[in-house]
Amino acid sequence: MSEVVYDKSELRRARYAVATVFAVHGAVTGSFATRVPWIQDHASVSAGQLGLALAFPAIGASVAMPLASGISHRFGARAALRGLLALWTLALVLPSLAPNLLTLCVALFVYGATAGMADVAMNALGVEVETRLDKSIMSGLHGWWSAGALIGSAAGTLAAHLGSDARLHHALAAVALTLIGVAACQGVLDLRPTEDEEAPPRFALPPRSALLIGAVGFCAVFAEGASLDWSAVYLRDVLGSSAGVAAASTTGFTLTMALARIAGDRVIDRFGPVRTVRVGGVLATLGGLLVVVAENAVVAMSGFALLGLGIAVVVPLCFAAAGRSGPNPAQAIAGVATITYTSGLIAPSAIGTIADATSLVVSFGLVTALTFGLAAFAGVLRGGARQSAEVASHEPVQRAKS
């Protein structure tokens, strides 16, 4: 084992490699999401049973993500990512094979567990590349995830339109994505622990440094989950919009999120993570207020678009901040990821529960209050700000001998 400093060309290659990994991860998600109706019919489960089963990916991810740090420490970052990403892409085939509710829940638990561990590993490597390049890339990497999800969902939509068996579709997609992912992993940084670095515990609770950062991510992911799952319902039930207009509100939300993530790195480099999240929180809060007071579809759709724009870069910045908040980046990132996954798990059901007790308007009043929390507590991301190029250049990276 020898100490080396990666040059700019190696870091650029590593950046493109990690971006490809993010796209592959997103493509698996998109491929799965479009075939959920087929999977429901194949497993012969009701809508309520499907809702129960769809909670298991988040449960699996939350349970497994703390393990990723130990895996990376033992095998090195490159090998760990290669193995975990391959497990995730191959796990795509499991849900479509499930013949009943029990097996579907087990399949989705494994699907979520592998997704969460790969998520932690790739975000940790993304943070390392960002630190050494001394420029923001995490927002763009998450933009690549969104692009991959769009590609996966487009292919899935075509497969569904052609009446393809999801088992065949997902088997072919899993093989293709595994090959692409494994090849991309060859270009990521081969980070390894120093000889005197202690191994992290096999399973650890989120470190204290990750809790406040995770709370900011919780607010953003709650707003994201609520808007994705309930924006169309809001326009239909509250404002009486047609099905086409209601669906367009969700499209507008996802589009502004994707565009903001792709363009977000330049904004972050210019204004810094704290100011960017504060402004984003203000925009998201304004969007939430527009949704709450809207009396027509145009105002509500504008509100959802502003929500997407405002929260887009928050989660990438939370991962980046977590990666620099303590001595073990992967463990801190796992902690933040666990909190955000939990938020994504409870948000849709919480919105529905509040709506049943009161109304959807009140539900999105809660979303608006949480987005204001982004502006109020953005300062916790200051501790994770990128180091200067001078500091980063004097911190050599451990790499295996070639």
Features:
402 residues, mainly alpha, two-stranded antiparallel ribbon, 1% strand, disordered C terminus
Determine the strand fraction and express it as a percent band: under 5%
Global mean pLDDT: 85
Q: How many runs of DSSP E, i.e. beta strands?
A: 2
Count of DSSP H/I helices? 18
Strand pairing plus helix content: what structural class? mainly alpha
**Residues in helices, as a percent range:** over 70%
- Low-confidence spans: pLDDT under 50, at least 5 residues? 384-402
Q: What is the ordering of alpha helices and beta strands?
A: EHHHHHHHHHHHHHHHHHHE
Q: Largest beta sheet: what is the strand line-up? A: 1-2
Could you please describe the fold and organization of this structure?
The chain has 402 residues and is mainly alpha-helical. 77% of the residues lie in helices and 1% in strands. It is built from 18 helices and two strands. α11 packs antiparallel against α12. The longest helix is centred in the first third of the chain and has 33 residues. The chain is globular.
Blueprint (SSEs and pairs):
Layout (H helix, E strand, L loop, with lengths): L1 E3 L3 H26 L2 H8 L3 H7 L2 H9 L3 H8 L1 H14 L3 H4 L3 H33 L4 H24 L4 H20 L22 H30 L5 H29 L1 H21 L3 H15 L2 H10 L5 H29 L2 H18 L11 H5 L3 E3 L3
Antiparallel strand pairs: 1-2
Write a compact overview of the structure shown.
By secondary structure, the chain is mainly alpha-helical. 77% of the residues lie in helices and 1% in strands.
